Structures are given as structure tokens and as C-alpha cells.
Amino acid sequence: MTPPFGMSVALYRGWGRGGGVFLISATLLLASGCAMKGDMRRLQDELTRNSARQEAQLRELSAAIQALQETLELQSEMVVDTRGGIARELRDIQTQLSQLGALTGQIQRSVVLLNTRIQADGGRVTTSDRRADPDSLRALVGRGGGGPAAAEETYEAAVVQFNRGQLNTARMAFGSFLMDYPDHRLAPSAQFNLADISEQENRLDQAIEAFLRVAELYPTADRVPVALYRIGNIHVLQREFDEAVNYLERVVNTYPDSGAADLSRDLLQEIR
Question: Quick one: CA dihedral 218, 208, 171, 113, positive or negative?
Fold first, then answer.
């Protein structure tokens, strides 16, 4: 870089008066200025490279965060699905347990029905030397006015038909027995069996009325607590739980030492 002509003359003229020092200083300043410009360019280049590296790192970090979010969302969905599957399995198990409980209750009630029928069969009077012929039932039905032996034979023949499953014939026989011998000691059993027949035929409202007649007509009979239990059981089958509780509690409170009371307690625990 060449200084202007005037400056060269001045420098030359002042060489002898220490101008050499001034010339050296000027030269150093010019060199220093060139060096600072080079450093600035290098610094700018370095900053540009650092910025590019940072941007690349930020992009990589952003991609990693996005991938992590997607993984977390997937795992969350899997957890939800797993929980849903477990919940469904628990509901299925609860449904199966409920069905098992209902089946157990049905078995228990079937046992009760069988016991009451056995009791009805055991209540037959067999003191007569002449055994009832179940096939002669039609001749016995409606043949009122006979003595104790005729009453017992009619009842026995009705029970045989009942046990055979001939419900229509048994109903006619028990009804005829009650019309002809309403005060007989087997009358409560006859009325109870009529109610039982109605329940077997799924005429549940008539069955309730017939069981109630056992308690109304023969309040001191042994069949009363069982009849009230059967009414409560029918209301359970009809899902009329309030009515069921009324009759079952009546059995428990009025006949606490009876077998029907034990059954009533069990059924109360089942429906509560």
C-alpha cells in the first residue's frame, strides 16, 4: 500500500528529526488494522459454524423428543388397553360368579321343594288296611260323605298322582278332599300341595294365594312356616325383593326354630 506523495515528502523531510519512529508506528497500525479485520472474519466464520452445529443439535434433540412422545403415547394406549382388558375379565368373572350364585340358589330352592314334597308324602295316613288304588282316583274324587278311611284313601291317591307328576288329576283330588273334609287333619297338607302344583305349573300368583290360604285357614299347622317361606321364594323369583323380605322376616321372627326359618335367613342374606 503506497502513501500519498505529500505524505511521502513529509515523511522524508522528517526522517532526520525522528521521523523514522513515526513511520514505523504508522506501518504497525496499518498492519494491526488488517489483522483485526482477518480476526473478525474468522470469528464470524466460527460463529456461523457454531450456529449451524447448534441448529443441527436442536433438530436432533427435537426429533428425539418427538420420538419419545410418540413412544409414551403408544405405551399409554397399551396401558389403557391392558386395563380395559383386565376390567372386562373382571366383569366376566363377576358375571360368572353371579350366575353361579343364582344357580346355587335355584339348587337350594329345588332341594326345599323336594323336602316339602317328601313331607307331604310322609304326611299320608296309612292306617287303613285297604290301600288306595291310584287308578281308581276318578271314582274317589267327588265321593264325599265317606268315613275317615275314605278321606285317607282320597288323600293317599292324590299324593300318588302328585308324585307321578299327574298334576291335573292330583289337583282335582286335593280340591275334592278339601271340599269334602275341610277340617280333616290332612287338610293343611292338601292345601299346601295345591299351592305347590300351581307353582310347578308356573301360575305363581295363584300359588301365592294358595300358600296364603294355608296360613289363613290353618294358622297352627306345621306347614305354615314352609308355606310363608315358599311365598317369599316366589317373590324372589319375580324379583319382588321387598315383598320377599316381608315374608321371609315373618318366618324368621314368628318361627325362629323351624327349618323354614333357617332357609329364610339364608335367602335373606342372598338377596340383601
Answer: negative
| Amino acid 31: pLDDT | 62
User: What is the rounded CA–CA span in Å between residue 115 and residue 100?
Assistant: 22
- If you average pLDDT over every residue of the chain, what do you get? 77
Q: Which residues, given as ranges, of the chain have pLDDT below 70? A: 1-37, 39, 79-81, 83, 94-95, 97-146
Nearest to 185 by CA among 137, 230, 144, 152: 152
**Please, what sign has the CA dihedral across residues 191, 196, 108, 228?**
negative
pLDDT tens-digit map of 168-212: 999 999 999 999 999 999 999 999 999 999 999 999 999 999 999
Task: Report domain extents, the chain.
Answer: 61-104, 105-271
Query: Does residue 151 contact residue 177 with C-beta atoms inside 8 Å?
Result: yes
Contact 214, 230 (CB under 8 A): no
In CATH, the number for domain 105-271 is 1.25.40.10
Q: Cα Rg for the chain, rounded, in angstroms?
A: 54
Q: Given CA atoms 164, 166, 170, 173 in this order, what sign does their dihedral have?
A: negative
Q: Which residues contact 109 (CB under 8 A, 6 or more apart)?
A: 233
